[in-house]
UniProtKB/TrEMBL annotation:
GO terms for biological process: endosomal transport. Residues 14-23 have a biased composition (Polar residues). Belongs to the BLOC1S1 family. It comes from Carya illinoinensis. This is Biogenesis of lysosome-related organelles complex 1 subunit 1. It holds the Pfam family GCN5L1.
Length: 150
């Protein structure tokens, strides 16, 4: 802190022609009182400036502490949300893999059921062919039997 130079008070030299002044007045006492008053005011101003500066520093330090606490509180929530987001993303990937595996299994099942349906159709076609052949054989056998009896 700087300390400005105090102005020096000028004293008035009593004029012998002026009759308004009283002979008992002590001009040095008034000047000393004024200088003391100015010096006291200057010291009080410096003290006030120091207290203001300390209060300002304390306020800045407290504001920084509050700011840090607020940032920590907000970051705690953000960090928790980030962890939850990562956990959800991992679960999504796991579910996507499971879905892909189930899709492959379903495709295999569809292929197997299609093959079974085709086989059943073929069996049905074969059975139908066998019935037709049996009917034809019976017809031929009946015709031969009729020819043989006639």
């Amino acid at each position: 802190m700087y300390s400005p130079q105090l102005p020096l008070a000028r004293t008035r030299v009593p004029d012998s022609s002026s009759s308004s002044e009283t002979p008992n007045a002590d001009p040095g006492g008034l000047e000393a009182s004024l200088l003391q008053f100015i010096h006291h005011h200057h010291e009080a101003s410096l003290g006030l400036r120091d207290r203001t500066e300390r209060a300002k520093k304390d306020a800045i330090r407290n504001a920084a502490r509050v700011s840090d606490l607020l940032v920590d509180a907000v970051n705690g929530g953000v960090q928790e949300a980030f962890v939850n987001q990562k956990r959800i993303e991992l679960e999504i990937r796991a579910l996507a893999a499971t879905i892909a595996r189930f899709m492959k299994q379903t495709d295999h099942w569809l292929t197997a059921t299609h093959a079974i349906n085709t086989a059943i159709k073929e069996i049905g076609d074969f059975e139908n062919w066998m019935k037709t052949m049996e009917f034809d054989c019976k017809s031929v056998s009946a015709a031969i039997h009729n020819i043989h009896q006639a």
